[in-house]
Amino acid sequence: MRALRTPDDRFEDLDGFPYQPNYLEVDDGDGGRLRMHYVDEGPADGEPVLLLHGQPVWSYSFRKMIPPLTAAGYRVIAPDIVGFGRSDKPARRSDYTFARHVHWMHGFVRGLALTDITFLGQDWGGPIGLRVVTADPGRFARIVATNTGLADARGIPDEMAPKLRQLLADTPLLPPKQLDAVMRGRIAGSERPGGFQDQTRDAVAGTDARPAFMYWIRFCDAYPDFDPGEIVALWLNDCSAEERRAYSAPFPAEEYTQGARQFPSLIPLFPDDPAVPDNRRAWAILRKFDKPFLTAFSDSDPGTAAIQFQQEVPGAKGQDHAIIADALHYPQDDQGEALAAVVIDFMKANPL
């Protein structure tokens, strides 16, 4: 597997990110090795808190959470998913699959020999991390899900897959500001309340013409001028020019963006997706998972995944589930200190 490595000078003097890089090699699943970058801060003997980002961001997005967590005595580990941040970036889109992302992240957790982990997953960090949790539950002590889910195409008949795939293929390719308007529901009929899995079920039922998330899939797949920093800046309450530079830093050229482009296409929206069986097996394990499980979703990004977790995961019962106020899709950036406080309170309320 041929992989690219973003030059180090792209990460010099990033605003609010003074952390020294750490690296670990994992099996690439193709006879070789991939180098993963991670932040490792706080006391070495502190309880580990594993923070896993989504798309198209990287560990930089957790910079506001790291100081309060380490001040509370915890060891904070924030890896960059393969294809993001300072981690290696396989050069072909076809190198990226849901199963491989799980394999790479599981290799990272085992490589660091982590146990008693408190795991927080946001966006794609959630489904990758939850698949690792369900494959290796003995390593994990607590779970925090924030603006994430584990899609399994539930409620969508198998025979609807061709229709939905055609609907996706016919979705217009929008420039960033129009895409932002659709994703926020500013265009009438473009989005209903709920997450992308709810919208897909509505498309099947004929109540919506097209799930808004399909515009995001198409944009990442094919928009010619794909700059993750530009998109992240639209989806934060505030984003300075230096912060936008940091979010663009991992991607100096188009060839480095293949993982970021591919991620939305890997969401198992359709019942014939290859990840559906594994995700459904993971849900079967989560429905027996009785360790503490917390949802901490943004007030502007509720979806219904939080309710699914609360209703279906035994460990979520009786927890003080949080709503992060004044936060968009990336609460770790918009309200990092507040989200860190939620995690600290959750850990103290559920001691080992």
Question: How would you describe this structure to a colleague?
Answer:
By secondary structure, this protein is α/β, with parallel strands linked by helices. The chain folds into two domains: 3-152 and 275-349, Alpha/Beta hydrolase fold, catalytic domain (Rossmann fold); 158-266, no CATH class. Helices cover 37% and strands 14% of the residues. The protein has 14 helices and ten strands. The protein has helices at 66-71, 98-111, 125-135, 161-169, 176-183, 196-205, 213-222, 228-234, 241-248, 258-266, 276-286, 305-312, 331-334, 336-349; strands at residues 3-4, 22-27, 33-41, 48-52, 75-79, 89-90, 117-122, 140-146, 293-298, 322-324. Helix 3 packs across helix 11 (276-286) and helix 8 (228-234) crosses helix 9. It starts with a strand and ends with a helix.
